[in-house]
Specification:
Growth Hormone, Chain: A; mainly alpha; globular
């Protein structure tokens, strides 16, 4: 497993991420259609449950896979996570029930971002790491700029079978690339001598970091902010494209273009975030991001026309600055010896939201009877939703999420500006490769991804 092309680099990780999510991006439109056909009366509920189960399993398994990758190496787990994440793809044309069941179960291994960011940490210095993470996150967003539109065109002109075949081929290419081209990034000197080495079970415990949340008032406020803001964000990203197509009258190509526009804007936000934060500060950036998120959630919830959905989507892209700003705020205002613990708490809270958010949105849709049935037929893709039809096409989960974000804003306003020793006042260290143990501790052993667009749910549904 140690063979590969060239020295391990960030570019290897970028190719792995691009191919995996390009394959799923091709299936964005076909999956929405299959979801509606498989669960015609409870589409939104089943969407939420499928993505919720996957998110919960990912949250539980991510730390364990991270701990195992410290022992067995990154390449092996890149191969495992990509294979099992893409395993449901060919089932889409074979058996749709098994397809959605496999999506749920694949959450156990659908933690490619965890291993990818550990890989990046191995091959970069501490000073280079933020930029490298930004490149990987931007690559993810870029993979979704054209793939949904390409999949939609192929589906309309040919068939779903061709799209599934192409997505399967790209997934196989990704697995082959890992086998042949990706070198192992974990140095042999820091790896145990045998595969039977003991696992650090404290690191593998998904709830270990969360149990420490209440030990510090400032950290508690930061985690509460993440919970109140990212729970609706995760739920929104799991269902928004299903909602646009099945309830707001968007046709297939309009949804694909919507994804492309949001992706391009998200990349732009990612590139300019650092400069923006230097201008107004991390805390103000957090509050601004929360205000944008609140606005777009209410717009999704109360909007009755397509242009309102477009406006909300643009605000969603701009509001993606919130979580990266929180991560930066934590990094700046935490002491040197508490960086790993604090980042782990925040990341763990976000991972928990990845599972609970989709399930929450699905249940709320079901409780308010927002589903596809005889009383609420799908709007024709060629006709505009009338002004008095907002009640016919309600978005109660988005409204509920907007109220949660208001609470998040109130909490964020009272987060202290200074907490302990700041990294801004520490003497700059000599540029170096930190030990892998320290790197993995600093990154929390989870998924420190920036939410340009949510990795799993957006790519799939």
């Amino acid at each position: 497993m140690s063979s590969g092309i060239g020295a391990p680099s960030v570019h290897h990780a970028m190719v792995v991420i691009f191919l995996e999510f390009f394959a799923w991006g091709l299936l964005t439109m076909p999956v929405i259609s299959v979801l509606n056909q498989t669960f015609p009366e409870h589409t939104f509920l089943m969407n939420g449950l499928v993505m919720g189960i996957k998110g919960i399993l990912s949250f539980l398994s991510a730390p364990l896979i991270g701990a195992l990758s410290d022992i067995w190496g990154r390449k092996f787990f890149l191969l495992i996570t990509v294979f099992f994440t893409c395993a449901p793809i060919p089932l889409m044309t074979i058996n749709t029930w098994w397809f959605f069941a496999m999506i749920s179960i694949s959450g156990i291994f659908a933690v490619t971002f965890s291993v990818v960011f550990a890989y990046v940490a191995d091959v970069t210095t501490v000073e280079e790491r933020s930029r490298a993470y930004g490149l990987v996150s931007a690559t993810f967003a870029a993979s979704l700029v054209i793939s949904p539109a390409l999949g939609a065109v192929l589906m309309e002109r040919y068939s779903d079978t061709l799209v599934v075949a192409l997505a399967t081929a790209i997934a196989v290419l990704d697995v082959f690339f890992i086998l042949v081209a990706v070198p192992e990034s974990l140095p042999d000197k820091v790896r145990p001598s045998s595969w039977g080495a003991p696992i650090n079970w404290e690191q593998a415990d998904p709830f270990a970091a969360l149990r420490k949340v209440g030990t510090d008032h400032t950290v508690l406020m930061q985690c509460v902010t993440v919970l109140l803001s990212y729970l609706p964000e995760a739920g929104q990203y799991s269902c928004i494209f299903v909602y646009l197509k099945l309830k707001m009258g968007f046709n297939t190509m309009e949804v694909a273009i919507f994804i492309a526009v949001v992706g391009i804007l998200s990349i732009s936000v990612q590139v300019t975030l650092g400069c923006f934060m230097r201008k107004i500060g991390a805390k103000r950036t957090i509050i601004l991001g929360l205000i944008l998120e609140m606005t777009q959630l209410f717009w999704y919830g109360f909007g009755s026309k397509k242009w309102m959905m477009w406006a909300a989507g643009i605000l969603a892209a701009l509001g993606s600055i919130t979580y990266p700003a929180i991560s930066a705020f934590v990094s700046i205002h935490s002491t040197a010896d508490s960086q790993g613990a604090v980042q782990g708490m925040v990341t763990g809270m976000r991972g928990l939201c990845n599972g609970l958010g989709p399930a929450m949105f699905g249940v709320v849709f079901y409780l308010f009877n927002v589903d596809l049935n005889n009383e609420q037929s799908v709007a024709s893709s060629s006709e505009e939703i009338t002004e008095d039809s907002w009640f016919t096409y309600p978005g109660p989960p988005f409204i509920f999420g907007g109220l949660m974000v208001i609470l998040a804003i109130l909490v964020a306003v009272f987060i202290p500006e200074v907490h302990g020793e700041t990294t801004l006042h520490r003497t700059p260290s000599v540029k170096r490769r930190a030990s892998v143990d320290l790197q993995y501790e600093v990154e929390g052993g989870h998924k420190p991804t920036t939410p340009l667009m949510r990795s799993d749910s957006l790519a799939q549904l």
